TrEMBL record, chain A:
It comes from Monodon monoceros. GO terms for molecular function: cysteine desulfurase activity; iron-sulfur cluster binding; metal ion binding. Belongs to the class-V pyridoxal-phosphate-dependent aminotransferase family. NifS/IscS subfamily. The gene is NFS1. It is an enzyme of class 2 (transferase). This is cysteine desulfurase. The keyword ATP-binding does not apply. It comes from the Eukaryota. InterPro entries: Aminotrans_V_dom (IPR000192), Aminotrans_V_PyrdxlP_BS (IPR020578), PyrdxlP-dep_Trfase (IPR015424), PyrdxlP-dep_Trfase_major (IPR015421), PyrdxlP-dep_Trfase_small (IPR015422). Transmembrane segments: none annotated.
Automatic annotation (TrEMBL), chain B:
This is Iron-sulfur cluster assembly enzyme ISCU. SUPFAM superfamilies: SufE/NifU (SSF82649). GO terms for molecular function: ferrous iron binding; iron-sulfur cluster binding; iron-sulfur cluster chaperone activity; molecular adaptor activity; protein homodimerization activity; zinc ion binding. Mitochondrial scaffold protein, of the core iron-sulfur cluster (ISC) assembly complex, that provides the structural architecture on which the [2Fe-2S] clusters are assembled. The core iron-sulfur cluster (ISC) assembly complex is involved in the de novo synthesis of a [2Fe-2S] cluster, the first step of the mitochondrial iron-sulfur protein biogenesis. This process is initiated by the cysteine desulfurase complex (NFS1:LYRM4:NDUFAB1) that produces persulfide which is delivered on the scaffold protein ISCU in a FXN-dependent manner. Gene3D superfamilies: 3.90.1010.10. It comes from Monodon monoceros.
Length: 406, 167
């Protein structure tokens, strides 16, 4: 046994170039895993490997943007990337049969997470494609006055939970289709498509610790919801989404859904505790901090705080060893403040001051404490540099000032 | 869980390996593509943050921008009797590039005369800080701040209306 342990130690210590292994997301503070930089596809000479500089990576607090692969998901996917590489639509040999079996197993895993029938799940390349298929259905609708209601289940910026069950009941009583983009909600809060009367649902793999590049759309069979295919081809996925289904990716999605179902309650409790810790500590030490979004109907893992008199991007630059986001990742390239914050009536200057903290399955208490400590320090520092803070301290009402541009 | 144990072991051996090979380890300053190290430097090693007495006759105060736009700069200059800027201070509500632009502006106006300070252009500020196109407006606001401070100083030097009427 001693030999086996020492062998494992040696195996672990060998440079990654010689022994390409998947690294599990390292829990713990200040990920001190030595990062040799992205590996090239072609195996390079061992002599050139040491040239790569090693870096300390930032803490990851941006789970709304994407999540790391759960190690259990990777374990499920690997055989289908290495050995069982058949096309799941090949009907004539064992490679195809085993891939098809895996695909159907994954379909069942996704369906059971949301209380659906496996025949109602179509695999896509992600929630965006699913949304497009769902919306396109509007044009294919038969009744002239049909409308489609499309609501996000959990908002990705402020974490607010929409009253999906109530909306679903209203829609079904008015015979209107109801679609929901559940990318941030699946596997995090309990969802049942029948209880909530959901007709269409978009699911994203990489938001629930699954692989990127895969998602699913739930399409109700009873009563039948007709959708129009976005891409045409060989008629796979009941003709609703042609293209070979990527077995390793859907196996990953299925595994992620199953793991999520098992871990949902525990994760929710743990994340709620960490979120409460983060908010309480920050609010206790800093004045003039506003939490955006309804505090009651809120998913705890997404905390959006506005630090008055401090601009969001400068705080992100200051918190350089924590990966965070200010506003939605989708709009980070524009100069506009977040449209979500504007829609909930946040003052424009507070919208520029917002930071989104994402707490996920692998976030630790030490990471939260470190982030809080750094955040408090840098907000205080930036407020010392802020003319608005100075004016407020002098008793000036900022709303009374005529600014030079708008 | 075995995975956690293996992770800990891998971390320990990685740390050992690091020390053994003595690889250069640097902090991943972030995001390297978005913030130039000159911009980060102005935040981490601030120069001239603060305030001058705005009631003083020798101090010009420029306040430009708007909180609704996410950019507000306050730039103050202290001018001596010969018209030379001897001190400058700034405070900024804005992104890293805005802070750096206004900080650099205070560095550049110091030692210049009022006329020379008027020649500072936003393009020079942007070039010095290697600002990307999306952040050019920060350098423009810094130029506006300098001009506003100089204009305020000039206004203070004008004889008061009351004095004109005096005999």
């Amino acid at each position: 046994m001693l030999l086996r342990t020492s062998w494992r130690l040696v195996a672990a210590a060998a440079p990654a170039a010689l022994w390409p292994r998947a690294r599990a997301p390292t829990r713990g503070l200040r990920l001190r895993v030595v990062d040799h930089g992205p590996q090239s596809a072609v195996p390079s000479d061992a002599a050139t490997a040491p040239e790569a500089e090693s870096v300390l990576r930032p803490l990851y607090m941006d789970v709304q943007a994407t999540t790391p692969l759960d190690p259990r998901v990777l374990d499920a996917m690997l055989p289908y990337l290495v050995n069982y590489y058949g096309n799941p639509h090949s009907r004539t040999h064992a490679y195809g049969w085993e891939s098809e079996a895996a695909m159907e197993r994954a379909r069942q895993q996704v369906a059971s997470l949301i209380g659906a029938d496996p025949r109602e799940i179509i695999f896509t390349s992600g929630a965006t494609e699913s949304n497009n298929i769902a919306i396109k259905e509007l044009e294919a609708a038969i009744q002239p006055d049909t409308s489609l209601v499309s609501v996000m289940t959990v908002n990705n910026e402020i974490g607010v939970k929409q009253p999906i069950a109530e909306i679903g009941h209203i829609c079904s009583s008015r015979k209107v289709y109801f679609h929901t983009d559940a990318a941030q909600a699946v596997g995090k809060i309990p969802l049942d498509v029948n209880d909530m009367k959901i007709d269409l649902m978009s699911i994203s793999g990489h938001k629930i610790y699954g692989p990127k590049g895969v998602g699913a759309i739930y399409i109700r069979r009873r009563p039948r919801v007709r959708v129009e295919a976005l891409q045409s081809g060989g008629g796979q996925e009941r003709g609703m989404r042609s293209g070979t289904v990527p077995t390793p990716l859907v196996v990953g999605l299925g595994a992620a859904c199953e793991v999520a179902q098992q871990e949902m309650e525990y994760d929710h409790k743990r994340i709620s505790k960490l979120a409460e810790r983060l908010t309480r500590k920050i609010m206790k030490s800093l004045p003039d901090v506003v939490m955006n979004g309804d505090p009651e109907h809120h998913y705890p893992g997404c905390i959006n705080l506005s630090f008055a008199y401090v601009e969001g991007e400068s705080l992100l630059m200051a918190l350089k060893d924590v990966a965070l986001s200010s506003g939605s990742a989708c709009t980070s390239a524009s100069l506009e403040p977040s449209y979500v914050l504007r829609a909930i009536g946040t003052d424009e200057d507070l919208a520029h001051s917002s930071i989104r903290f994402g707490i996920g399955r692998f976030t630790t208490e030490e990471e939260v404490d470190y982030t809080v400590e750094k955040c408090i320090y840098h907000v205080k520092r930036l407020r010392e540099m802020s003319p608005l803070w100075e004016m407020v301290q002098d008793g000036i009402d900022l709303k009374s000032i005529k600014w030079t541009q708008h | 869980m075995a995975a956690a144990g293996a992770g800990r072991m891998r971390r320990a051996t990685s740390a050992l390996l690091l020390r053994a090979l003595r690889l250069p380890v640097r902090e991943l300053s972030a995001p390297a593509r978005l913030y130039h190290k000159k911009v980060v430097d102005h935040y981490e090693n601030p120069r001239n943050v603060g305030s001058l007495d705005k009631t003083s006759k020798n101090v010009g105060t420029g306040l430009v921008g708007a909180p609704a736009c996410g950019d507000v700069m306050k730039l103050q200059i202290q001018v001596d009797e010969k018209g030379k800027i001897v001190d400058a201070r700034f405070k900024t509500f804005g992104c890293g590039s805005a802070i750096a632009s206004s900080s650099l502006a205070t560095e550049w106006v110091k030692g210049k005369t009022v006329e020379e300070a008027l020649t500072i252009k936003n393009t020079d500020i942007a070039k010095e800080l290697c600002l990307p196109p999306v952040k050019l407006h920060c350098s423009m606001l810094a130029e506006d701040a300098i001009k506003a401070a100089l204009a305020d100083f000039k206004l203070k030097q004008e004889p008061k209306k009351g004095e004109v009427g005096k005999k």
